[in-house]
Amino acid sequence: MIRDELIARTRQLIDEGDRLEARPSLQALQVWLKLSDELLVAAWGSMDRYHLAWLMVGKSKDVVRGRPMTPTEEHAYVREVAAAKTAALRMSLDAVERQGMPFRGEEGGVARGQGMGQVPSAPEAGSPPESGSPPETDDREKRP
Fold first, then answer.
1. What does the alpha-carbon distance between residue 59 and residue 81 come to, in Å, rounded to a whole number?
2. Phi and psi dihedrals of 142, rounded to 5?
3. How far apart are CA 136 and CA 35, in angstroms?
4. Which of 88, 91, 105, 114 could form a disulfide with 110 if both were Cys (CB 3.0 to 4.6 A apart)?
């Protein structure tokens, strides 16, 4: 996935999240959560249960158990979950668009700027330094 594609798809999902808050639909929420989960996993990787619980994304504060939700309760649930997930999508968009952070799906793996990088190999003892390389010095020789 390229950066522009991630930005465009995230914006679409944010717009849909805003629509869900304005016009709640439980069926539309379920589809939107699946699509947004798939995009976030492709971009950032999957989250373990600890992180999901910490974010509380998809968890309503007032869960109805043992009976169907009333239309009012269902609308409130959809609005609450959509608002939380839309906030997570906005953070993802900010990270990619404004902060320019590399993401998992970019360039098929770990993007430039991530990881340990390459460690240059030291020239063998007695070999001349590579052209353009500063000469090696021994700091111990400079101490009094």
1. 7
2. -85, -15
3. 55
4. 114
CB atoms within 10 A of CB 114: 13
Q: What is the pLDDT along the chain (144 residues), one digit of tens a residue?
A: 889 999 999 999 999 999 999 999 999 999 999 999 999 888 888 876 656 655 655 555 666 788 889 999 999 999 999 998 999 999 999 999 999 888 887 765 444 544 444 444 555 555 555 555 455 555 444 444
Q: Is 82 exposed, middle or buried (0-12, 13-18, 19+ CB in 10 A)?
A: buried
CB atoms within 10 A of CB 10: 22
Measured distance CA(111)–CA(103) in Å, rounded:
6
Query: For helices 71-97 and 3-22, what crossing angle results, to 10°?
Result: 160
Instruction: Look up residue 32 and give its two tokens.
Output: 């939107």
Predicted TM-score of the model (pTM): 0.67
Report residue 97 as tokens. Answer: 């668009």
